[in-house]
Amino acid sequence: MTTVDKPSMGFGRMHRKEDARFIRGRGTYVDDVRLPGMLHGAVLRSPFAHARIVSIDTRAAEAHPKVKAVITGKTLEGLKLAWMPTLSYDTQAVLATDKVRFQGQEVAFVVAEDKYSARDALELIDVEYEPLPAVVDARRALDPDAPVIRDDKENQNGNHIFDWTAGDKAATDAAFARAEVVVKQDVLYPRVHPAPLETCGALADFDKVTGKLTMWCNTQAPHAHRTVYALVAGLPEHKIRVISPDIGGGFGNKVPIYPGYVCAIVGSIVTGKPVKWMEDRSENLMSTGFARDYHMSGEVAATRDGKITAVRVKVIADHGAFNGTAQPTKYPAGFFHVFTGSYDLEAAHCEVTGVYTNKAPGGVAYACSFRITEAAYLIERLVDVLAFDLGMDPAQLRMKNLLRAEQFPYSSPTGWEYDSGDYPRALQLALDMVGYDEIRREQAAVRERWAAGDRSGTLPGVGISFFTEAVGAGPRKHMDILGLGMADGAELRVHPTGKAVLRISVQSQGQGHETTYAQIVAHELGIPPDDIEVVHGDTDQTPFGLGTYGSRSTPVSGAATAVVARKVRERARLVASAMLEVSADDLEWDGAGRWVVRGSTEQGRTIQEIALAAHSSLELPDGVEGHLDATTVYNPPNLTFPFGAYVCVVDVDPGTGQVKVRRFVAVDDCGVRINPTIVEGQVHGGLADGIGMALMQLIAFDEDGNCLGASFMDYLLPTSVECPSWELGETVTPSPHHPIGAKGVGESATVGSPAAVVNAVVDALKPYGVRHADMPLTPAQVWRVIQGSPLRTDLAIT
Amino acid sequence: MQVPAHFEYERATSVDHAITLLARWGSEARVVAGGHSLIPMMKLRLARPEALIDINELAELVYIRLADGVLRVGAMTRHAELLANPVVGEHYPIFHDAERVIADPIVRNRGTVGGSLCQADPSEDLSAAFAAVDALAVVRGPGGERTVPIREFHIGPYETVVEPGELLTEIRVPVRPGGSSAYEKVERRVGDWAVAAAGAAVWLDGDTIADAGVGLTAVGADHFCSPAAEAVLRGAPATEETFAAAGRAAAESCRPSADQRGPVDYKRHLAGELTVRALRRAVARARGQEA
């Protein structure tokens, strides 16, 4: 990381304003909040993936001296809360009544004086189950004899959820019919989990006197949660306050409303006391929003000399037992249809089929940008398969097919309008940084020795991934979640002394909003970032908006911040004109915090002077009420399209299957960078995620649907030992429609990096004739690939 | 948050006191040393002892001594101390190889040599390393002290010959000239249990292998060793062909089970491959060709 020169104002590197409290251990997370008389909840979970509930006996638990309440599905049925709506217009059981549908599903909720007693009492609840056959493999979910998981739903005869298509099927089929070369590859993006360091939890406090519910909850979308609680529980929305305090990582895992939250609310209503529920690590991994689980089959049509003409894709999407994914309503497969990636194609088409399985619900999470992870991985794997079959260098093949700078704005065959980009420049920079030709020469020497019979040592491999993201959901006319448009508000107050308070609707989980948004205001108004307080995460204190996920904060809320600051600036102009006794038209903004008289820049007023005047006895011009404060709601005209070129170098030990990541070069273009240090930190995290997914992460199940990834002993996260020293580069292609030219970046590295790692491992194994290998490339999986089994046909590695 | 079921807690102030406490609490008591296996199991409620006897204050069990040709390691020696000890590294580099890949520095600062052996996890590393060098365990109980060859110490997964009421106090390793040792492990990620691992100790007489020990872990080898591989090695020339033959014997003699770390055939392959690599390195070290 480069040095920090703290700018007095605006964009550039500065330490995060949040760091002082986090480094000192003075953050306030949900579990740090303690209220007088607070009780503790714990959830009893299903040991079976699929079973009928015969009976639940709670008498012994209720008799426990420290237990205050035991809540079951029956209790909730009386309140019409046994089922709740999901963010995808499906329903989800809060506490199971008829059946359990995945291992770890919520069955009962105990409220006790302390968390030890709550856990002890869970063991006193006697549930009789009648086990049923489970649907574990999504590819078998639509078999005629597959057990029906959602027999609670009328007219649901099988496990089918949706079919969704994008692109022009006829044009795509025609392009394939004409193609000189067609390559096909099945590609699995296995089930993984965002695994935030802080698990999910809530503290519900229902005040019977005022009728007000205060909900501390580590949600990424506090305003959306408030509205959903109002709709579900019938509580008036103005009597609900959601407070999202400091959050220890979200990655999409903290977007949904989980049964534990609803149970905590009911527990508080029933007992009249605040009730805290914090899940443990195993509960988080077993039952909350997982990611991916896409079984993809992709085809590429191309000319013999490597010009890609069309891509078509079929997907089976495993959504688990309840369809609870969070994405814009129109797009049940999220933004998967950005799978044409960064290439200039004639046609493309995809068909996605969503199915139920006896596994935890979810699918859209883990920095996926609404399924762009799956799309980017698929196309980048397919391009390498094409390179393999054509005997072409994968870098040259990409250069040949990348969109050119003059093609922007570019209308993609599946309906996107890419805002800006210069792709060949980014790829060339990445290749130069890594020393591509030199590594290829080294590799050729090793392969020569290998072919001659000396098979000692490791095999080097180089993998490239070029990705384009579509982030910043999104334009209201296209995008909503449960009918709520995906716009975000901002309010800016400037105090008489020139200090400011910015209130935003998005919620930081570690992204550094308190710094970044202060820098945007500083850039627009010339108020130093340290003089700006950023308030977020409290629905009583902030304007409405849909929250932080899908890399949408800077594209939407960052834009709202710039717009509201500009509104303040325009108000300030009127006040300055009164102060200077000149026409507002004769003033110009000097870009550093002053309105000055055009042609006479020594005559001017700073924003601080103007703020004081706005609150003083100065006679204000017509239309100025007496302060500079402003408010706005930003409805983005389009998404932003960040992109990047990643190159990974690995060394593979064919004797053991071990992969060592030697180097990783990441060139990102996210438009204008507000705080480069924060951008780089986000890229670092995403690259580590990518190494984790490519090499070790998997939520596996056995054939009975038992979750095999329910602890950090079984579900592996990468450590610093597995990560090389990241080599970062950047190009800057501003977004033409964003007020400050920025694009989202929070998920870029997670989206782009897995393909680079997998492509590098496959490239290393070329002497064995390896063309594809499914993730995660654990030593055992690499060894199996060498033995000739590239596909993960089973779900558990056994 | 995961919380254990109710248990009582006693802190022992001496080995004799610990043995008295064990006698008082009976078979439902468990000794806690570093606690890095037992405590997580208790939090998951997979282990529910009625009482924990904490022996962390027993400084009398913390030592590494070399005297009269025997290396003695006290049972409460932390992994980090074994790793940092130059005498251990000089005579038996296998322990430094193994300790470098046991868990992570935080666990190594706390976890103990004795605790690792008594936990008897079938994937534990030191069990294979001590088996390779043919160590001796010293166990003390109310009736006094007894010694057990390490190859008789483990009687099954999570089972040892240490009776309720007894305490493992020391491990002894004979130090012989002309030899060296090495340890090779494959893990999915640093800190994970071994997918498979092999340890080798060799004593050379010129270019001939005078004696050898082969330890294996995570592959279902009885007592964490491979006598079949050792039989191939004894008296054979220290060559790649011999190593390969020993590797084949090690692979054939183990009984791995499939799990998320890998299928049976892969683990069997690793048992052979890692045996070969450990032998290659141990012999190179014995010849002074590699540190």
UniProtKB/TrEMBL annotation, chain A:
Annotated ranges, domain Aldehyde oxidase/xanthine dehydrogenase a/b hammerhead: 24-133
Keyword line: Molybdenum, Oxidoreductase
Coiled coil start-end: none
InterPro entries given in the database record: Ald_Oxase/Xan_DH_a/b, Ald_Oxase/Xan_DH_a/b_sf, Ald_Oxase/xanthine_DH-like, AldOxase/xan_DH_MoCoBD1, AldOxase/xan_DH_MoCoBD2, AldOxase/xan_DH_Mopterin-bd_sf, CO_Mo_DH_lsu
Record bears the keyword Oxidoreductase: yes
Highest taxon, organism lineage: Bacteria
A Pfam family annotated for this UniProt entry: Ald_Xan_dh_C
Signal sequence, renumbered to the chain: none
NCBIfam families tied to this protein: CO_dehy_Mo_lg
Protein name: Carbon-monoxide dehydrogenase large subunit
Biological classification of the source: Bacteria, Bacillati, Actinomycetota, Actinomycetes, Micromonosporales
Automatic annotation (TrEMBL), chain B:
InterPro entries for the chain: CO_DH_flav_C, CO_DH_flav_C_dom_sf, Diverse_Substr_Oxidored, FAD-bd_PCMH, FAD-bd_PCMH-like_sf, FAD-bd_PCMH_sub1, FAD-bd_PCMH_sub2, Mopterin_DH_FAD-bd
Top-level taxonomic group: Bacteria
Record flagged with keyword Flavoprotein: yes
Protein name: Carbon monoxide dehydrogenase medium subunit
Entry keywords, A to Z: FAD, Flavoprotein, Oxidoreductase
UniProt xrefs under Gene3D superfamilies: 3.30.465.10, CO dehydrogenase flavoprotein, C-terminal domain, Uridine Diphospho-n-acetylenolpyruvylglucosamine Reductase, domain 2
FAD-binding PCMH-type domain: residues covered: 2-178
